[in-house]
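Q: My labmate handed me this sequence with no annotations at all. I'd like to see what the chain might look like in three dimensions before we decide whether it's worth expressing. Could you predict it?
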Amino acid sequence: MSCTKRLPLLLVALCCLGVRAQDNLTAFFQPQAAVNYNVSQTYGHNFSLAYRSFFIDEGVVEYQSRQLDLAHFSKFKIKGSQSIAFGVQYRFRDIFDDGANELRFMQQFNTTSRPMIIRFGHRLRAEQRITRARTIHRFRYRFALDFPLQGEKLDLGEAYFVGGFENLLSITQSRSSQYDTRLSGQIGWQLDKGFKFQMGIEYRLEDYTSSLPQNVVFLLSSAQLSL
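A: Here is what I predict for the chain of 227 residues:
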C-alpha cells in the first residue's frame, strides 16, 4: 500500500483511538480560508476566516453553527528560518448562541529546519483571551512536520502531509489551570503556485487533568492563497 493511501487510514485510527468508549465527545466541522501577503523578504501579513459548527454535541448527533473567527498576523523574519509574529483575533459567538464574543491577542516565535525531505517546526505562542467575564492567559507549544508524498520535492498538483502535536496551558483567576493536548494530521495539494488546499482531522483532549476530560474532534479543511 502506498504512503498516500496509508495516511488517511492512520488519521482515522488516531481519531478513533482517542475517542473510543467515550460519551463526552464533541465534534466540529471547521473550514478556513487564509491569505498570505509578503510586503518584503522579512515582513508579511496573514489574514484568515474560520467557521465552526457542531455535528456531535456531547455525544448527540446534531448540526448547529458555533462561531466565526476573523484573525490577522504580522510576521517578521528575524534570522534564517526563525520568525516572530503578532496577531489579533475576534471570535463572533453571540450571533449563533448565548456564548460570549472574544477578543484575542497573540505573540509567537517559530523556527523550522529541513535536514532531508521532512521539514520540522517548533512554535511557541502566548495568548490573551478577553471576554466580558474574564481574561484567560494561554501558553502553547507545537511541534509540526510536513513532507511531500510524491518524490523529494513538492511540485504543482502533488500532495503533501502536515502533522502536528501541541500542548496548551490556560491560566485565569479564581479557576484551576487547564491542560490540553492536540494531535492533528492533514493532507494537502499544491494546486497552483500560490494556492494550496488541505483537509484532515484534529483530536483534542481538553482539561485532561480534571475528573472528566473532554474529547473533541475536528474535521478540518483550508484554502490558502499566497500573493
